[in-house]
Design brief:
YceD; 18% helix; 181 residues; five-stranded mixed β-sheet; DUF177 domain-containing protein; 3 helices; alpha+beta
Amino acid sequence: MTKRQDESALDASIRIDHLPPEGRDLKLSANAEQRAALAERLTITSVEKLDVTLNAAPFRGGIRVLGRLIATIVQPCVVTFAPVTQDIDEPIDRVFLPGREKQHTPGAEVFIDIEEEDAPDYFEGPEVDLTELIVETLSLAIDPYPRAPGASLADIPREPADEPESPFSSLKSLRDKGDKS
């Protein structure tokens, strides 16, 4: 994962060289500027709160990141466009390994165990940027179709259509005017 240079971006990088066996803790509380940038990136109205607590510990030659993401977001209701607030509390559990395990040659068979947990992420160098992990966890927890309390599709007023609109309907009004002479 690449480190973002933007000042408004979250900085969730952790050095893993000389990582103690109990791991390193990372606590992150996004400031107003970071929350605004994140809301824009996720195309939601606002991120009111974002707190993340992570622990990165050595695991099979890489690291395992365990933690929790707590957030409050606001986005428009899909029916009424009224603001809807959603509280998010998501666990985080991800494995990062150095480099790519092994490159597969074209035409070679690749076996995937669908019963196995998620595939690990990879990193290069002595530092791992966990920013994309945080953004991904938040974006997957967001309700894609938020509804305000009591909002229903039946509440949407519909205009009755006497007849379907056709490309010739405007010509019909011209013809009717011409018949009056």
